[in-house]
Amino acid sequence: MFGAGFFTIAAVLTAPAACALEPSIQFHQRSIPQHLAPQALPSNFYDFAPEDYWAEPEDSYWLNFSNWVLLQERTQGERMGQLGQWADRTLSGESHSLPLNESYLRLSFATETRAGTVLNFEPEARFRLDIPTARKKLRLVIESESEELIPLAERQRDRQLTEPERSSTGTTGALRFLGQVGDSINFSNDFGARLHLPPDAFWRATVRKNWQPSGDWGLLAQQRFYYYHQNGWGSRSWFEARHDLGKGWEFINSSELEWVHSDREFVAAQVFSVSKRMNNRAVLTPRIGVLGESQPSWRTTEAFADITWRYRMYGDWLFGEVIPALQFARDNSFKDDSSLVLRLEMYFSGNIVRRN
Fold first, then answer.
1. What is the pLDDT of residues 20-44, one digit of tens each?
2. CATH topology assigned to domain 61-348
């Protein structure tokens, strides 16, 4: 009994001493807003006085315009997605739709200065309504323009032009039947019409193949045949080679040959470009190109050079572009014609994946 009591008393007396040897540390975690509060940071951290932290922003034209742009993305992007999904469900007869249809709306404001003359900002609009689940391997596609009816020279210099300089082809609607041969050859057949009075029926067939002969090279070939009731038939052959140069640089070689039935001639384009991703917002793309035609004999009709600096200004839907360009056209005796295009572009879509 005495021994047990002795050990009990010894344990009680030594326990506080053992506990006293362990330090008592209390952690107080502060949130990020607390760390960045004006009163918690030095006065030179902000470029305004701490008492102005909660002040209302001053009204200005730029603030009103930027708020309007942000509002349009939230409202129009959701509307485009809902429109595509509604049409998808209606035409397919299904109660659900695929989340990634390719419906989009592009709105731009662009201005061009040429020979010292600054033009007004011109609005630009392009759209596509793509219905991928109307039936298996069948799509309904409504687009704002007919690519085949746009001259080759205009397509190659599309970003250099503003809306008044572009050809007006009208909206088209088509049923697209999709197919595949093997793992890399895709083909499609479109049957549709240009949506104006009287309607202009058309058909086009496209075969597309891409492959990678090596890790740094990517090749893409495309052949298209088409027929428009009012413009006749035509064909386009297109080839592209891409090579990764490293450090964010990519080399692109593009060749295109087109038969223009109305002029009974071939037109061709050869374009070399490199693309450099400067950071996660900016992409720089210099290009040089040569255009030619086969009538009265093969000859050069135009040469051009441009540099496109494209900057992602907000999120993944608001972009700015600066495009200085030089054009040497046969119609102008190959004299240099310089231009500078400034563009603000908004891309509205209900999809997660968006295009640059």
1. 444 555 555 677 777 777 677 776 6
2. Porin (2.40.160)
Question: Among positive and negative, which fits the CA dihedral 253, 259, 307, 105?
Answer: negative
Show me where the domains of the chain are located. 61-348
Identify the top-confidence range among 99-108, 124-133, 150-159.
Answer: 150-159
- Residue-wise pLDDT for 226-278, tens only, equals 999 988 999 999 999 999 999 889 999 999 999 998 889 999 999 999 999 99
Look up residue 75 and give its amino acid. T
> Does the model's pTM come out above 0.70?
yes
Q: What is the pLDDT of residue 12?
A: 42
Tell me: the pLDDT tens digits for 160-184?
Answer: 998 888 998 889 999 999 888 777 7
Q: Which long-range contacts (CB under 8 A, 24 or more apart) does 335-342 make?
A: 337/114, 337/115, 338/114, 338/115, 339/112, 339/113, 339/114, 339/160, 340/112, 340/113, 340/114, 341/110, 341/111, 341/112, 341/159, 341/160, 341/161, 341/162, 342/110, 342/111, 342/112
